[in-house]
Structure formats: structure tokens, C-alpha cells
Hints:
Layout: E1 2-7, E2 14-18, E3 20-23, E4 26-29, H1 34-39, E5 48-55, E6 59-65, E7 73-79, E8 81-88, E9 99-105, E10 111-114, E11 118-124, E12 128-135, E13 144-146, H2 165-168
Antiparallel strand pairs: 1-2, 2-10, 3-4, 5-12, 6-11, 6-13, 7-10, 7-12, 8-9, 8-11
Amino acid sequence: MIKTLRKTKIPGVYELINNQFNDQRGSFVKKFHENDFEENGLQSDFKEQYFSVSKKGVFRGFHFQTPPEDHVKLVYCVQGEVLDIVVDLRKSSPTFGLYVTFDLSAEEGNSIYIPKGCAHGFFVKSEQAILVYNVTTVYSPIHDTGIHWSSVKVPELNSEMIISERDNHFDSLENYKSPFN
């Protein structure tokens, strides 16, 4: 259940601080409760869920799907720790082109709610990290794209990161023609 819903400088992007229960066995965190999402005006009709396993120094991103297959994402870390980054690509937004960062970790049990029109990426800080993604549309290869990591100017990101060939060939933020209003 959501303990705290933290607004960010980007409209519609939230950090969810969930109730976490710890005892001698370990910990327990409920990441999603439909009523909590409805009460907070958050979309929750998730269609797909997947996870990634990444080693230290990996950067994945900045990814998103374009309309009509754009989606809301709920992201959280079940092992390790990452620097999570969301970039606003909505042309009519007062924060268009800006980004916000979060420290996501299994220990904290926090989640990030990402609205349509935002790109998402993360950098692995721990030896290994496992992230879970819930999305409101199914994967569509022809709508799946991204923007180049270096064009966002996040100080923690650098050319020493482990990056996929695909991610290294995305257009820059400056050259990307956003379909998001």
C-alpha cells in the first residue's frame, strides 16, 4: 500500500513510498493496490509485466513507446540499487526536456510512476540489479524507441557505462521530433 505519494518537478511523475514490513524472516512490500491507485488518480490497467537483470555499470534507456501504443509505467527494484531517470517528452509540458532522478532500491522498496510521454532509463549502482516494469500497453516493436543518453546531460552518466548498441544509436533529445502533446 502507498504510504506516501511524492510529487516531482515533472507533472504526473511520482515516487511511491510503500509500506514495508520487516521481521526476522526478511521484508514484505505491497507494490500495487488498485484502490490506492484509483484514490490517487493513477492509471492502473496494466497489460504487461517484465523484469531486467543488469550488472553494475549498465545503463538501459532512455526508452518509451510512441502513440498509439504509448504507456504508463510502474517501475521498482527487487534486488540491488539503481539511479532511475525520467525525461519529459511532452511538448506542451512546462518541464519538456527536463529530467528527474531517483535512487530506487530493494532496501527502500520505493516505486516510480511514469506517465505517457516520458522516457525512462536507469544506471546500475550495485553489483547487480533486478527491475520490474508494469506497463499499460503491450510491447510494440514499431512503437518502441528512445533518445540518446548523452543528450539528457545527467552528470552521473558517462561513456564508461555498459550500453547496448541499440541505445547508443538513438537520436538526441534535440533532434527527436516528439509526438507527445
